[in-house]
Amino acid sequence: MDNILFFILSALAIGGALMVILARNPVYSVLFTILTFFAIGGHFLLLNAQFLFIVNIIVYAGAIMVLFLYVIMMLNLNKQSEPTQPFFIKVIAAISGGLLLITLLGALRGMDSDKVISDIPYSDIGLVKNLGKVLFTEYLIPFEISSVLFLSAMIGAVMLGKKNLKDH
Amino acid sequence: MNAIIILSSLGIIAMLAEMFSFKKSLWYLVLAGLAVVFVVNLLDWNLDTPEQQFKNMILFDNYAVAFGGLIIILVFAWFLISYNHYKDSELNVSDHFSLIIFSSVGALILVSYTHLSMLFLGVEILSIPLYILAGSMKKDLASNEASLKYFMLGAFATGILLFGITMLYGATGTFNIVEIGMYVQKSSEISILFYSGLMLVLIALAFKVSAAPFHFWTPDVYQGAPVLITAFMATIVKTAAFAAFFRLFSNSFGLIINDWNFILSIITALTIVLGNILAAYQTSVKRLLAYSGISQAGYLLMTILAVNQESSKMALLLYTASYSISTLGAFGVLYHVMKSKGSDSLDSFNSLGKTQPLLGFVMAVSMLSLAGIPPTIGFFAKFYLFSNLLSMGNTYLWLVIVAIVGSLVSVYYYFKVIIAMYAKEGAASPLMLTTFHRALLIIITGLIIIIGLAPGILVSMDNFKI
Question: How far apart, in whole angstroms, are the C-alpha atoms of residue B335 and residue B328?
């Protein structure tokens, strides 16, 4: 059962991701991104990480996608107005992307599946209670220090948004 | 750890300066705060058993303290150079200062992390304020372009870093860099997943230190950003990124050096060759310094090839210190020239040596130091770096030869600036230096020469073991 679900979700995720870059209309691209995020959220559920699933849906499929749609509508990009790339660039991009794909597939193929680490220290880490416990004990310092990151991002947003002193 | 806490609080205080209107005294307050941070940082020096703090997330060993001290000194010097610039400009001083301080917090994390999540956070905290600061001249197109380019490519590199970290975790089951090193030591057959992760992390870090072929963002970003921000990016960011690079590779991947040294030596040689050759074609001094930064990154990568040598840490510290001090001196002069002439082209340096003897002298000494000509600190740093690499045998003899030929090319473009200052005629500039700036430039030049003449004061101190 888990396996079937896994393959369905994987197919959805990969298909959605492909459609994001293949779709001509940017709005369709965004909608396929939502599909991809839902499929990845499904994977989180399979891994028993309900909290991550919910956060993934709320933050990515909810908030960020709405932002994307807003920007696309305001820029009026929905007329398939994207400039076409020169053929040369397309070839180079295909070659380098393909090389990366081959490398990563090779890495996967070389893996012995029985050597994969199975004893993850906390198997039900994804539950809110355990996640909170780990976040506030073992991962306390990354958790706290990330506030500096968000603070500087906020200052930056304000700084870029407001007028300079001389403009007043 | 206390240094990080105090520095973060200093950033918050700087942010609040506007609200509680002590903007006038903010500059002095920041300098005093940085002095306190420097002292607090030194308190961790030579602890018998450096405490693994917060569940093996961060470790203040001598390596971290030494590089942290260097970074705090550089930030201090940066604030001295920016004296008066933000006071009467149209920009908001408290935003700028708090972003710079937060970025320095990221730098301190990068020199002391022992956990890959801290590496990621450190890289982000270091970079995100700079994405914004690079675009702080809002009406200048080049500045906007620099910000956007830096942000896009930086975000892409971060994605690659995260992907690499994920793979390393998948292979080893741990995020701790020391435990990853133990995994390498113990396991008889290292999984291919591990190598893919290693390569992705290598690529992301090479991007952050602007090594070729991941250097394309550097010239545009360095040129577009405001000159003081460029000075910050060229010195403090590079020092922190290299310290992080070395820390990861010496702790985790030192034992399998034979698996990655070939790729890294190619990257190193390419960086040195490309950086030096492209720099020779530049007509803007700011862009020239950007390319010089790329080629110097090549020399710095040579310490990572010798990651198992005990003296490599010293070589890295010495070279980053030498490069950063010389570059700060050069940017200090460039800042004044741009202020008076409004241009960073090579022509605006014409006859600077005659009209402004002090500026000319400081620039000349900085250029000589970057080129590696005695009696400056740059010569000794290069010498120590090469001899450190050669002490491993003749494996890297070819690389040292490439590096020396690269240095010869670099003499050409560094001397272009000196020739413009002393041999070409140009209009005198209405430039008035304050006594403060004079004293500061003299101190920087003095440091470059004194450490160059007597490098022993740094290297041979008995209890200075990092």
Answer: 10
The CATH number that applies at residue A33 is 1.20.120.1200
Chain A contact set for B173 (CB, 8 A): 117, 120
Q: Residue A19 domain-assigned?
A: yes
Whether the predicted interface score ipTM is above 0.90: no
Q: Do B105 and A148 touch (CB under 8 A)?
A: yes
Region B207-231: mean pLDDT is 92
The helix/strand count (H/E) of chain A reads as 7, 0
B411 band by pLDDT with thresholds 50, 70 and 90: very high
Q: Which of residues 122-161 of B touch A (CB under 8 A)?
A: 124-125, 128-129, 131-132, 135-136, 138
Give B51 or B390, the one with higher predicted confidence.
Answer: B390
Angle in degrees, CA B411, B415, B421, rounded to 5:
165
Give per-residue pLDDT as tens, B321-379.
Answer: 999 999 999 999 999 888 888 888 888 888 888 888 888 999 999 999 999 888 889 99
pLDDT average, residue stretch B414-439: 83
Separation in Å, CA A79 to CA A68, A72, B330 = 16, 11, 50
Which residue stretches of A23-113 are H helix?
A: 26-46, 50-55, 65-75, 87-109
Q: Which two tokens stand for residue B233?
A: 């990016």
Backbone angles phi, psi at A78, to 5 degrees: -80, 10
d(CA B444, CA B439): 9
Q: Give the mean pLDDT of A118-126.
A: 59
A86, part of any domain: no
- Cβ separation B128–A153 shorter than 8 A: yes
Domain interval for residue A24: 1-80
Structure-block tokens of residue B209:
């230190």
Q: If DSSP states are collapsed to H, E and C, what string results for B51-116?
A: CEECCCCEECCHHHHHHHHHHHHHHHHHHHHCCCCCCCCCCCHHHHHHHHHHHHHHHHHHHHECEH
- Pairing between β-strand B58-59 and β-strand B52-53 as defined by DSSP bridges: antiparallel
**DSSP structural state of residue B351:** T
| pLDDT score recorded for residue A150 | 94
Residue B248 is predicted with a pLDDT of: 94
pTM for the model: 0.92
| Structural domain total, chain A | 1
Any idea which of B61-70, B378-387, B417-426 has the lowest mean pLDDT?
Answer: B417-426
Domain presence at residue A21 = yes
For residue A115, pLDDT over 80 is answered with no
Give yes or no for A48 touching B (CB within 8 A): no
| CA distance to partner chain A, nearest, from residue B351 (Å) | 34
List, in order, residues 6 or more apart from B325 with CB less than 8 Å away: B74, B77, B369, B377, B444, B447, B448
CB-nearest to B132 from A156, A164, A166 is A156
Asked whether residue B460 carries a pLDDT value surpassing 90, the answer given is no
A59 assigned to some structural domain: yes
CA distance B335 to chain A (A): 21
Q: Contact B196/A166, CB-based, under 8 Å?
A: no
If we measure between CA atoms, which residue out of B424, B449, B420 comes closest to residue B329?
B449
Q: What does the pLDDT read at residue A168?
A: 46
Distance between CA atoms of residues B198 and B300, nearest Å: 19
